[in-house]
Amino acid sequence: MHALRTAFILGLVLVPLAGGARASAATYTTETIEVWVTAPNSNLIYTRVVRPVPALYPGQQFPALIAIPGGTGAGAPIAGNPLYRNLAASGFVVVAFNPEGRGSGAAGNLMSQGAEDCNGFIHQDDLKAVIEYTAGLASVDVSNIGVETASLGIAIGAGALGRYPALPVAYLVDQEGPHDNRVITFYDKGNEVAVCNHYSTVTDPSPANVAFWAEREAVRYIGAYPGRYLRMQAQTDHAQGAAYFRHTIEMIDAATQPAYGGTGSAAWTRVNGSDIGNAVNAVYTYGVPSTYPTWVTGKLADHPGLNITYDKEMAGVTTSVGGLAAPASPQPMPTRSARANTPASYAIATIALALAAAVIISNARRRRA
After folding, report:
1. CB of 255 within 8 A of CB of 266?
2. What was the pLDDT predicted at 27?
3. In what order do the strands lie in the sheet with 268-271?
4. Would you say 229 and 222 are in contact if contact means Cβ atoms under 8 Å apart?
């Protein structure tokens, strides 16, 4: 792996006070580094990492999130997204990468070696290498690494985590990922299209087409993933439209352990976050709406940043007891040298002093009276 360059930003994180109060915003100073991670086939994978500057927080370790975009696009630009940069500034190591053959060549989006694989085994192996690289970073809490996928990115995420269940990934957040070839090609919706030049296996049942999709159907692999699995799903799917839920129900049922009625290995499963209130480790019956979980209202796009909220929530889940998620230990806070004396902090301090002075004056007047 070869580092390319480093840039610095400032981000905000709330500092808890005694009694549960919250004070002014403080900062983790973050840096962005670019490295080339070696894939199992020896190709170099362009990878970007946004993290609290290790030199400023010596000895501190942070949860890590590896983010994978939807479709078949480049992933490295995620490192420039303000939502993910703010996540890093709140105390995360955020990692994004371009699977083989992807990248425009522009700054921040360099092309990885190798050929386009349409989220198949080669791209899944790229994720494996990036996970192993992330786990080796001194500032990463190796017990708290998560993967977040959007849409077709689940083919990479579930494929890698199911094929390599020993990878140190504590949780997977899946945003409305299409789980089989019928959903990926929109066959179920009646407007089928070729994806990566392949139609569904219903339209083309040839052995070659079946083999192609076998690498890319997340539902085949999610059952072997032993970590925690959160599926995000809104009332109106970003791709399949309103009231389409087969993919979500079949993925949850495939991930959940047999003890709860599923067929999988996941330590913990749930549809949507704690704000929605669905049961942990629940399974559902497709075609029987009365058994369905509660969906996010409208579309996921109506709730910008909800994925980040759920990422943080999953990073704080250590066990599931009686259906309740127990919080993990608090994240380490910035050292004094990293806390910003922002205008907001001065304003809050001034208000506090003014209130204290008012109380003193009021008490003095009452004594004179």
Report:
1. yes
2. 79
3. 6-16, 22-38, 44-52, 93-97, 62-68, 140-150, 171-175, 228-232, 268-271
4. yes
* Predicted structure pTM score: 0.81
CA distance 141 to 131: 12
3-state secondary structure of 203: coil
CA–CA dist 354, 347 (Å, integer): 11
Residues 6 or more apart whose CB falls under 8 angstroms from that of 262 comprise 252, 253, 254, 255, 256, 269, 283
CA distances from 351 to 16, 21, 23, 264, 280 (A): 19, 16, 12, 55, 44
Task: Report residues of the chain scoring pLDDT below 50.
Answer: 1-26, 318-369
Q: How high is the pLDDT of residue 317? A: 62
DSSP reduced 3-state for 244: coil
22-81 confidence digits (pLDDT tens): 333 447 999 999 999 999 999 999 999 999 999 999 999 999 999 999 999 999 999 999
**In contact, 114 and 43? CB cutoff 8 Å:** yes
Tokens of 368: 């004179």
Beta strands in 69-189 (DSSP E): 93-97, 140-150, 171-175
